[in-house]
Amino acid sequence: MTIAVNTGFAEAERTNIAAALSTVLADTYALYLKTHGYHWNVTGPTFQALHTLFEGQYREEWQALDEIAERIRALGELVPQTYSAFAKLTAIKDGYASLDSEAMVAELLHDNETAVRTIRDAFAVAESAGDQATMDMLNVRTTAHEKHAWMLRATLDVK
What we know:
By secondary structure, the protein is an all-alpha fold. The chain has a single domain, classed as Ferritin, core subunit, four-helix bundle (Ferritin, Up-down Bundle). It is built from 5 helices and no strands. The protein starts with 10 loop residues before the first helix and ends with a helix. The relative contact order is 0.18. The mean pLDDT is about 95.
């Protein structure tokens, strides 16, 4: 037996919000994988600082994955769960363990900014439906990725 979701959103609103959140989830997952991989593989004179920075970021991203997925479920939709599903949804490309530390930081900076843009697109969808819960969660995600980007930018000393 399937029980309909009756929380004040039309079905189309729920599915549109969930679709936008699925893209946010895919970007977050791809960024988590890349950041964790760079944590493992970074080398060079700034190893310790970057190893620690990347760890803080991937741990924060890991926690966010569950929050985003659970919001999709609360909207009554299924959550994408495969690598291939995420690959179709994300704009974030795989990282390469052989990159030097500066290139790793530059990629993660770019990818966090990509995640922010994806979140802003999802925010507009949630806002048009009046979905305050999703908007609140997306505000937290925007703050996190903008902070990550700032720290990475500062590491590169890019203005």
